[in-house]
Amino acid sequence: MEQNSWHRLGAEELQRMFSVNPQTGLSEEDAVERRKTDGLNELSEGKTVSPFTLLLNQFKDFMVLVLMGATLVSGLLGEYLDAVTIIVIIVLNAVLGFVQEFRAERSLRSLKQLSAPSAKVFRQGKSQTIPAKMLLPGDIVMLESGDRIPADVRWLECSALYAEESALTGESLPVAKHSEPIQAEEVPLGDQRNIGFMGTMVTRGTGKAIVIRTGMDTEMGKIADLIQNTDSQETPLQNRLEQLGKILIYVSLGLTIVVVVAGIMHGQPAAAMFLAGVSLAVAAIPEGLPAIVTIALALGVQRMIKRKAIVRKLPSVETLGCASVICSDKTGTLTQNKMTVTRLWAGGRNLDVTGEGYAPVGQILDKGRPIDLKNDQSLRRLLQVAALCSNAEIQETVSTDNSKRKGKGKSAEGDKIQNETSVWELKGDPTEGALVALSGKMGLTAQTLAVSFTREKEFPFDSERKLMSVIVSQPGGRMICTKGAPDVLLGRCSYMLWDGGVVPCTPTLRQKVLDANEGMASGALRVLGMAYRDMRPNEVVSNEKEAECQLIFIGLAGMIDPPRREVREAISITRKAGIKTVMITGDHGTTAEAIAHQLGILQRGGTVLTGSQISRMSENDLDKVSDNVYVYARVSPEHKLRIVKSLQRHGHVVAMTGDGVNDAPAVKAADIGISMGITGTDVTKEASSLILGDDNFSTIVAAIEEGRNIYENIRKFIRYLLASNVGEILTMFFAMMLGLPLPLVPIQILWVNLVTDGLPAMALGVDQPEKDLMEHKPRGAKENIFARRLGWKIVSRGILIGLCTLIAFWLTLRIAPDSPSQLIRAQSVAFATLVMAQLIHVFDCRSSRSVFHRNPFQNKYLVLAVLSSLILMFVVMYLPVLQPVFKTVPLNFREWCLVLVTAGIPTFVMGAGSVWSGKRKRSRGSNRPMIKSTKFSA
Ligand code: ATP
Predict the structure, then answer these.
(1) Residue of the nearest CA to atom 7 in ligand 1?
(2) What Pfam families does the record point to (predicted)?
(3) 230 pLDDT band (50/70/90 cuts)?
(4) Rounded to whole angstroms, how far apart are CA atoms 85 and 77?
(5) Å from CA of 431 to ligand 1 middle
């Protein structure tokens, strides 16, 4: 078949060419066979970095090159041992850097896999969802509004289907699609209306299609290079830290030069000072910072996945921690989306419905008495319309539970009994499932209805119109069945079924419907209205407007959709965390308000605003009220965008959920766009930065908690790394200024850097959150990373570490200032003090208050990292072969006491200070605000 002539073929030719039956799709054997010749349905990936290149990159770093040069120089000067040791340290550093970056890269790649698209196909007669990359030419796919078309397809059936193809054709408006062959030979892509192209979007309607081209053979494949996603996914924080890193390089280099010059001026040998300077510069520059930030982000994102929150865009992890408003859909996110009709209203009667779940088992009761459908034409019609105008299916699956019989008696079948339990499962929209189950309770099932009715056309539900209609034919003629939001539906009705007859829909009758609707909604029921009309013999209906008019209103169905159990708790957490939760729903105001009350969303003084009120408001009017609105009801997707923008104008960082295709603009405009993993459309998923794997509101709260924790962890290891580096530089700086000998030899400096920078910093990156993490107000979006006194903590601890190390050095050296062996002893003391001070300080970094506020053994990784760093320190001090290399000697008891006391001062003295000042503040009895503000301490 010529590549570009698919549009000319009819459905039968297509089936023949691909040897596939559209009713059953490919068989599994076919699929396996075809896979051998057809590749995966993927566009070729952009360039990826190989592990080898990643390893090589470690040696390309400017500072590493300088160090290698210096090593060469010291080798040439005859310091072979030094040279070899430095090379070993460089290699160890590179391996550490490689492991960090490799892990980061791998986690980012696995994230991509998680949000990979899927496709709904017919295989082996069953509809199933498979990864889009597994599609084969000949597969039969089902697509609906909001889906991204997973391969090039030829439409076999289309129901009011529109596709947005701007990525391919440049046409920004969605184009109508059909399934008829097009005879012309050369047809431009934009006019191939019976073809769906990979990567384009279905914006309305539903359709069935056969896959004709996959992967790089598709039209998108031809331009794949142009659409490769080149987003670097660097977060603003990463960018800012990169800038900071550059500044730190200059500062470290500047200070190093001062140290070297001062040393030479005080009589130190130039060659030794040169090597010490280079080592110091290498140690002082926090080269591991970017990789550790990436790891902290990536591991945090992995933790989020475990909690069912899938991050699509890394920068949103940061923004999550700043979220101050969550705008959440109601149905399915705050509620369970498990609908059951419990009440009906028809012809002025309120009826109760019994039964649970989607099982078509139960009764309809009128004042407690079961209804007989034979004598109730209006109720029969209501149930017919409810079932005919629904696409959901309910299926019974029977599971056999073989359990052992307790006791001694034996049954004829041995000691096992068989319990058959039947479960009714829903396929499709829960609202429609509830209606199908309702009709089934009175014997009106898909099978019984199919005897008299055949569906001809569907005008699918959309959340803008809030209605759905079908045209069905029956022996006596054709009928339009419509269901939807009662207030909207009533506007399309001119008549009503009342007392068994059709009467004009007078204002009094309308009011009765609205009152009944209000009554159900105030009990938190979701209400749908049902209407119909017979069609004239030759009536042609080409769009929903022509169909949904002059209808006869039949009645209402009210269904419960219980709130999710865990959501109440999640909402109270958000409140403590200073985050406002707003419900935005297409549902009726009264229903929404009732559920908002149940969940604790509606605050005292908070208001409910409806979509029609928003429509009448200017942006200014909306801004005046939006900060005080907790429930937006009967909104259309377009309102969501206005709500997001208005809240943003109030300075809020807004997280907004969405599922339908029309929600995408609002989801995109929000600071954190959130889509639904189960019910969400591809379009919204792609616009979002976070996907909820379980569609659950509490998952948003979990993600915010993780987002805050990740940010705090990044602050923790920035504090640790920089304070350590300040300590290292100042030890040398102070010594040179005071005309003392070098407190540390170059190799010791490099070893301190290796031992303390790598593992402990990484372990801080996966630290557990502090208890009150969700009791602070969200941080400001523009907050400086050094805010909340982080900068002060870095400088104060760094100065103390430097001073204490120098004091330990000096106190030891003082015993015999001119003895070379005492100098080595003093340098060993300084080395041990510097390492110990940093390893004690790392526990201090875990708390925003002091080391005394957290259990030091809680973070097992940190304990292990510190232990391994200690071992590395002891190895170079106590292993006789390494002592000459690292110029160390074993210390005696008195020296160890000195080391521990001086190393503990920076952390414990400052910690005691903060406890003391905390107590003083409390004893002054400060009035606590309801939401605690972020705590700081010295
Ligand atoms: P949320 O935005 O919180 O998910 P929602 O699911 O109630 O709320 P929509 O799906 O837009 O919002 O529904 C709006 C209204 O449309 C509902 O209150 C209901 O009356 C009506 N409706 C919902 N589903 C259907 C459907 N399948 N067919 C006809 N009408 C429907």
Answers:
(1) 587
(2) Cation_ATPase (PF13246), Cation_ATPase_C (PF00689), Cation_ATPase_N (PF00690), E1-E2_ATPase (PF00122)
(3) very low
(4) 15
(5) 8
Provide the 3-class DSSP secondary structure of residue 310. strand
The set of protein residues with a Cβ atom below 6 angstroms from ligand 1 is 329-331, 429, 431-432, 461, 463, 466-468, 483-485, 526, 528, 585-588
Domain 305-336+564-702: CATH superfamily, name plus number: HAD superfamily/HAD-like (3.40.50.1000)
Mutate which of 435, 528, 548, 641 for ligand 1? The one with the most ligand atoms within 8 Å of its CB, which is 528
Dist. CA 587 → ligand 1 center (Å): 6
| Residue-wise pLDDT tens digits, 662-719 | 788 899 899 999 998 888 888 888 888 899 988 999 999 999 999 999 999 999 989 9
Closest residue CA from atom 6 of ligand 1 = 331
Q: Report how far apart the first and last C-alpha atoms of the chain are (Å, whole number).
A: 76
Contacts of 611 (CB under 8 A, 6+ apart): 632, 633, 634, 635, 636, 639
CA of 526, closest atom in ligand 1: 18
Q: Residue 482 in contact with residue 551, Cβ under 8 Å?
A: yes
Which CATH class name applies to 236-294+707-923?
mainly alpha
* Structural tokens at position 895: 């020296």
Q: Would you kindly state where each structural domain of the chain is located, as residue ranges? A: 3-45+111-228, 51-104, 236-294+707-923, 305-336+564-702, 340-400+419-560
Interval 255-291: pLDDT, tens: 888 888 888 888 888 877 877 787 777 777 776 677 7
Distance 114 CA to ligand 1 centre (A): 29
Q: Which of 217, 329, 429, 757 is catalytic?
A: 329
Tell me which architecture the domain covering 3-45+111-228 has in CATH: Distorted Sandwich (2.70)
Cα separation, 357 vs 365, whole angstroms:
18
The encoded tokens of residue 658 equal 């969405």
> What's the chain's length in residues?
938
CATH no. of 340-400+419-560: 3.40.1110.10
Q: Which of 115, 207, 170, 135 is nearest to 682 (CA)?
A: 115
888 and 828 in contact (C-beta within 8 Å)?
Answer: yes
CA 649 to ligand 1 center in whole angstroms: 29
Please identify which residue in the block is written with the tokens 């080595």. 824
Domains 3-45+111-228 and 340-400+419-560 share a fold: no
Distance from C-alpha of 182 to C-alpha of 521, rounded to nearest angstrom: 50
Known catalytic membership, residue 329: yes
Contact 352, 371 (CB under 8 A): no
pLDDT in tens, 753-779: 877 777 888 899 889 999 889 998 998
* Nearest-atom index, ligand 1, CA of 486: 20
